[in-house]
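Internal tracking record. Fields below are filled automatically when a chain is submitted to the structure queue. Please do not edit lines marked as system-generated. If the sequence contains nonstandard residues, flag them in the REMARKS field before resubmitting.
Queue: standard
Priority: normal
Entity type: single polypeptide chain
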Amino acid sequence: MLEGIETLKKVVGEVVGVYDSPDWLVAEILGDLAGWDEVDEDVLRRAVELNSSKLHDMFRRNLQLYRPGRSSIRKAAPYLVAELLEAEGLEPAFIKLNGAILPAAYRGRNLYTPVVPVVEAKRAVLSRLSALARYPGAYVVASAADGVPGLRLEVRRIQRPPYYYAVVDGLGRALERAGAIRARRDGVAGRLYAFWRSYRSRGYLVLAGREVGGVVVDVLAVGLGKYGAVAGASRRKINRLSKFLDEVYEL
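SYSTEM-GENERATED OUTPUT FOLLOWS
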């Protein structure tokens, strides 16, 4: 059964564009094939292709419903920066500094170079930058906000996975010149990023800090189904989310 579900997920990814097989799709496709003596990948592909129009429409509706706005991009900025660090061949991490969780490049021996994303010049962000002034040359600012100096941060939206991503010109050179700060990793943020990265790599639209059913989901992945990762949520909130999401992961 598990092998059939994984094969179905693979076929859906190739036909629809997102590697997803929520329970209702498994029940529908495999239920229709219950009388078959042998269900291989070719049979599953044919079944998915016969339902492709409906699946494409459902995926498009989900993408439109959860299309990220400026607030979503601001909340996702730390993860987008972590992706850029990986693209530079660096090990991304998340550290807690002055009460904020920041993406950072790991330098070894508990040393990190934070990269502070600024999407909007909000008071909390400006206060964070002010507090970092005690570490001159040991951090990098990536800014999309007028009046906040730093490397130019641009978030580009596209019509295919990953649907939005960040560009920071000169990030690699700035990190080469920057120093480092001794800090401790934030394990929860690291696990949330692993969830983010896993679902982004499989064609999902992934969002940070999105509210579902009145509960904030730390990281939400949207495909044919919807999957949420939360940290430190109460049992009441988990139960509430379970009514709206296909799967809730406690990290």
